[in-house]
Amino acid sequence: MMFTHRQKKQIIIGSIYLIIFIGTIVGGYFVFKPKLTCFDGVQNQGELGIDCGGPCSPCAPKVAAPVIEDQQLVQEGNGIYEFVAKIKNQSQVYGNSKIDYQINLYNDSNQIIKTINQNTFILSGEEKYIVKPAIRIDRSNIISRTEMKITHLGKWEKMDQAVYPDLMVKNKKIEILAQSNKYAEVSGTIINRADVGFQKVMVNIILFGEENKVVRANQTEIRTLTAGQERFFSVFWNKPFISQKFHLIVEPVTNPFDQDNIIVEGSK
Question: Could you tell me the pTM of the whole model?
């Protein structure tokens, strides 16, 4: 089909007007289009659950800090002390792999004469003891009070039930030997009922006397406790006790957050 010069001119002019019209419509859309914001009320950027201008990273769980329920210091003699505290995790779901804490010992002038900075862990719903035996203080100092405080909390994590410790104590007993180099001995057996083993298990031993006062405290360590294994332990003190009425606590603890601490059957 052949177009006349007049028709060609009309087509060109019409095309120019059409392009201008389409450009005006498209340009107006982008000029007046509402900007995507965190508050537009529309899930338009891949949000999960709420409109936040983009996908949200998982929020850290809000878990209250562990509660320090009790702390006591007992003197063994010759400037040697034993410290015991009890802490409680208020969450039944989350545990914490690294809790930094500080212990301050004050003299009778309310001055700090010794500071201990260490860390621990806590399992979900756990109440556990912190035991620090053999703290040495200059014998010229008189300890008037102790102060334990949590200085930093690590990440709260849901507990992996597959590696949750299941440690039991059997045949625990205390014997007063009254020997020249061994006054009393505590012994027993730790049983690992978990499906995995542990490279290191700490055993806290605490003797409580009247009015729940700590009489003595100690620790021992068990290495390489495999699944289903039993292991004997014993600790002793060579200084006489003030109290002769005891309530014995034996608490085995191990860290399931530390992958190097876990022994899986068949692994090398």
Answer: 0.76
